[in-house]
Write the structure tokens for this entry.
Amino acid sequence: MHTIFVTGTAGSGKSLLTARLLEWYHSHDVAPISINLDPGVSKLQYDPDIDVRELVDFYSIMEDYNLGPNGSLILANDLISTKIDEIQNQVQELNPDYVIVDTPGQIELFVFRSSGPYFISNFYSDSKVTLFTMDGTLATSPISFVSLLFLSQSIKLRLGIPQINVLTKRDKIIEKLPEILNWSNSITSLQNSLNLEKDTEQSLLSKDIIKTLYKSGNMLSPIAMSNITMNGMVNLSAALSRILTHGEEEQSDQS
């Protein structure tokens, strides 16, 4: 059993990517299931096989603890880690090949509090990987692109498992896409673009950040993906296969 944790900022396309991954694996005769870990979400792009909302009632928490929406959401997300055994038992009953975990929309509540890393480290799986969804519409300026890369590295450090960056909304940034991908592959290109920025202080800080990322070998180039057209899914599934199954499925598909 292999587990894919889908993370990213609110509105970056996590739930839709989860839905597309389910479709992809189903169409390739693989048995995937989905887990929704967002106790506060009202609508999803897929029908989760396991839903944390059935275990943690966000609205009851508001009433029982006399909390506002933000406080209730924090407590609800912290309670997720206490439900790991129940979730794990449900997963074992379903016996999937892949588990696709859609994490909470407010990334800071899952990644930067103790409950998220605890859940990931204690969730049993043969292999694990994180997908970090980088909202393509927010990555069109070099400074914003560097900010997303920095956030990506922070998440990788917090969760401590292999990670793939996914540049979502490819279809909405098609004219800027070659330049964005060039930034991820060439530090010189990114530095040249930063030199053109009007805010000198932000530009200098961004240059220091990318130098550190490059030197540490953690400049993770994103895979451009459209959740609407599925363009990029072949590349994403191949990258997942290399990490989770050491390329076994990819070789099987080609044979």
Q: What stands out?
A: Residues 114 and 120 are 10 Å apart (CA to CA). The beta strands are 2-8, 32-36, 50-51, 98-102, 127-135, 163-168, 223-224. The longest helix spans residues 142-159. The chain has a mean pLDDT of 89.
